[in-house]
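Before the break, one more example. Copy the sequence into your notebook; we will annotate it together after we see the structure.
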Amino acid sequence: MAGSDLWNTVDDYFTAHLSPDDEALAAAVRDSDAAGLPQAAVTAPQGKLLQLLAQIQGARNILEIGTLGGYSTIWLARALPDDGRLVSLECSGRHAEVAVRNITRAGLAERVEVRVGPALESLPELAEEDPEPFDLVFIDADKGNNPHYLEWALKLTRPGGLVVVDNVVRDGRVADADSTAPDVRGTRAAIELIGAHPRLSGTAIQTVGGKGYDGFALARVLP
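Here is what the structure looks like once it is written out:
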């Protein structure tokens, strides 16, 4: 069995036993595909990982940068208590419309607010509101701006909070120091910021699965 076929088979096995889709999650994928959204959402095992991380954090306030069709949003919002709050930032109004429908169908509209517009404009506006510090930040948007999103996460997250940056391996291209591709340069800058910043302690994990060869970075915000 070829590598990618094997990865998919293993992902299917893990999904069936550990993170099976219910109707709300399946419908979110189905409707996102029907609307022509990019097939870039996390996999079910990755969504379950995000949910577990939020639960381990005891998260009451979550910030997501990059909503897409709301699939990861649903996983994260399900980790929140009834009075918890998730703010998700999405650049595309069309994507946000699909996401809001998916989130509402999942019964999570009261916990989730989707804000439309470039995140680098929404983040300062959010900061001006002086929100309660976030317990977890999930960054999964345009990769060229990863270091800027990470800097904003530091401003908005409590000490002890967790920042998760998705898609940091880029099929291995992250190791190419000579790359001029914006996604690689932005991801490398974020990784190097995590490694150098005195208020961050982090690591990065390579993954294979339904989304191919990629990975994520985890960073804890220090006092």
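The two ends are 48 Å apart (CA to CA). The mean pLDDT is 96. Try to locate both features in your own notes.
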